[in-house]
Amino acid sequence: MMVETQVKNQRVLEVYESFVKHLKNFLDEQQLNHEEYSNFVKWADRLGRSGEVPLFLDVFVETHVLESKYKDAPGTQPSLLGPYFVEGTQLLEQKPFVIPQRPDEAGDKLIFRGNVTSVDGKPLANTKVEWWQDDNDGLYSNFDSPAPAFNLRGHFYTDENGDFEVHSIVPIPYQIPTNGPTGEFVRAAGYHAYRPAHIHMMFIQEGYETLITQVFFEGDQWLETDVAKGVRSSLLTKLHQVGDHKEASLDFVLRPL
Ligand code: MBD
Ligand code: FE
């Protein structure tokens, strides 16, 4: 008897069937034996139980998702959202915007200046900017960090010229956790576990595609071999020593919807 079926979500079917088509090509090429398949199932089970699925996918898959969709797009290239964005950050209103930090926050002080425009050059005033980064121990607040919740996280709005100025600290290279199934894979593959130092930023403006991206620093030793492959040339800035602190800047360009 034919079972009545109804496609609930055409996109799910389309994506799944395309995935299987390419999976078959991959298997024809690799000829996995049953031991390899079983090892994969056990590792994937450990990955799920460890809570590292978002970490693993954001490190090893997200960049390919973005590259396929955005590599030829005008405007600033997106980069990885990663596993460490949280909603509910503090709104910063007093200028210059000082990112919430401990009174004795370790690290080089940073003044970062940015500007937000549309692809046609129009300044985008009142753009919401979310900012998050690691601290001088390479940790993100709210995730296995002794720092107060929401440390080195905040959001603010660009001024009438699309400009903003943030006072924070310079992030350091980030080592992804190595003690779980993700680290197991990194070691097995012979990769290192580092990402170059980066600041996460998200730009939200009515009528424009939300830009989720990261800023990187010239000269960082991990730029070419970022374990998560998140670096794009247009996302690089240069740190300048100015008196007792460092300064950097970058312009961001949003695409109309
Ligand atoms: C990070 O800090 C990050 O930005 C990504 C993409 C993955 C893991 C950790
Ligand atoms: Fe990060």
TrEMBL record:
Q: List the keywords (alphabetical).
A: Dioxygenase, Iron, Metal-binding, Oxidoreductase
- Origin superkingdom: Bacteria
The cofactor required is:
Fe(3+)
Q: Which SUPFAM superfamilies match?
A: Aromatic compound dioxygenase (SSF49482)
Molecular function GO terms recorded: catechol 1,2-dioxygenase activity; ferric iron binding
Q: Which residues form the Catechol dioxygenase N-terminal domain?
A: 9-70
Residues annotated as domain Intradiol ring-cleavage dioxygenases: 82-255
Gene3D superfamilies reported for this sequence: Aromatic compound dioxygenase, Catechol 1,2-dioxygenase multimerisation domain-like
GO terms under biological process: catechol-containing compound metabolic process
Q: Which PANTHER family is this protein grouped with?
A: DIOXYGENASE, PUTATIVE (AFU_ORTHOLOGUE AFUA_2G02910)-RELATED (PTHR33711), INTRADIOL RING-CLEAVAGE DIOXYGENASES DOMAIN-CONTAINING PROTEIN-RELATED (PTHR33711:SF7)
Which protein family is named in the record? Belongs to the intradiol ring-cleavage dioxygenase family.
What's the name of the protein? Catechol 1,2-dioxygenase
Protein species of origin? Peribacillus glennii
